[in-house]
Amino acid sequence: xxxxxxxxxxxxxxxxxxxxxxxxxxxxxxxxxxxxxxxxxxxxxxxxxxxxxxxxxxxxxxxxxxxxxxxxxxxxxxxxxxxxxxxxxxxxxxxxxxxxxxxxxxxxxxxxxxxxxxxxxxxxxxxxxxxxxxxxxxxxxxxxxxxxxxxxxxxxxxxxxxxxxxxxxxxxxxxxxxxxxxxxxxxxxxxxxxxxxxxxxxxxxxxxxxxxxxxxxxxxxxxxxxxxxxxxxxxxxxxxxx
Length: 242
Prior knowledge:
Structural class: mainly alpha
Helix content: 55-70%
Oligomer: single chain
Distance between the termini: 48 Å
Number of helices: 13
């Protein structure tokens, strides 16, 4: 049973996170002093809830990641459960739309974290887990070929046997470990493309028309054995981006 004191702490932490997110999307300055002022407490009082700025960043980043995952999951669930390819495409488009519409929060979660925060997100990210589950579902449905372990760099094989990925690897046999490599490469394609778009490091006309994103999605479809499915998947992409 939750005590009043425990509930008050939960409520205050919620206010701290919400204030931090307002600062991120407003001034972009999420300092401890600014957060304390936004919440209506002194900076020393804030230390009763977070140990330091890095911990605050971690907590806020995890909250943003959870919000993004919920939005992506809603888009995923517009597609039939027995169509993992469409669910993956809908999720990828939703991720792009969220990132472009929430550039400051995207930056905090995916491009501007201390090493310790990044390591935790690599394992615990709800967004990452959503995409890894979808990839495994696509493989279960289409059984696309994966490389053999002896075809991969031995150092990569060692990593794949103990990877830092946001995925439930229960039941992933040793011979299927290369599937994790395909997951990493698929994420690199999606994340890299969206990051270029978010920060404007590419011709803005290409971003406006989503040309690089569409090309990346077609490349990913081919890599995941979905080339024959892509004509119908392209229609879903077009509809979501319209």
